[in-house]
Amino acid sequence: MEFESELQSAHLVRRYNRFLADIKLPNGGIMTIHCPNTGSMKNCKEPNSLIWYSASSNLKRKYPMTWQFIESTDNHIVGINTGLSNKLVVEAIANGTIKQLQDYNELETEIAYGAQNSRIDILLSGGGLSKQEKCYVEVKNVSLGVGSGLGLFPDAVTTRGQKHLQELMLVKKSGCRAVLLFCVQHTGIERVSPADEIDPEYSSLLREAVAVGVEAIAYRTEIDPQKGKIWLQDELAVIL
User: Fold this and answer.
1) pLDDT number for residue 91
2) Cα 132–Cα 137–Cα 141 angle in degrees, nearest 5
3) How far, in Å, CA of 97 to CA of 89, rounded?
4) How far is CA 61 from CA 18, 20, 29, 66, 90, in A?
5) Where are the alpha helices (DSSP H) in 66-158?
6) Domains of the chain
7) Which residues form the SfsA N-terminal OB domain (predicted)?
8) CA distances (Å), 182 to each of 53, 154, 218, in order?
9) d(CA 124, CA 82)
């Protein structure tokens, strides 16, 4: 995908709550921008890091600039906008990048389902491995890199994520495909694992889900801040 407007660069001063961050502009001025990530953002909020932000076309927004990427301390580019993940996956399904999700004829998003009043990110139907088989896809954004090519999810305790795993297990038991897709917005991550020390309950549920047939797959993005582009490209290993 390509951003509507050219990305601008600055340096991070601080991310001081879940929704806002202060940045230092090239002219020395300080500006507050929207932070589209409610997680802990562990390892991707170091002060004075180079960041890139976009301008919103919505003139009514109080903070019209949105933080998109940051350069990590080990010189990798990290996408912090969790709202991009679903869009990136939908785009990648449409262009055939995700080989496990090819050949479906219909794609719907944000469909109500499950026993806990959930919404599935993507519902595929009309094709795939079985002509009658629906495929429920839950997308998770991965931005936590801990070195040596390892990425972890989640970066904070996620009761919502735990619920989604429970729902996916029920989907699988009902006879449909259930897929957990990690969208890795970090150019230095080469494999993904559950973050046992951060959320042991989520990690346990993930292993249980895979054991009953839920498919856990991961794809990494390519990020080009200078050209204002980001896209899903490489499949990564999920190590449980």
Assistant:
1) 98
2) 170
3) 9
4) 17, 13, 20, 11, 26
5) 84-94
6) 8-79 (2.40.50.580), 84-238 (3.40.1350.60)
7) 13-80
8) 23, 10, 4
9) 21
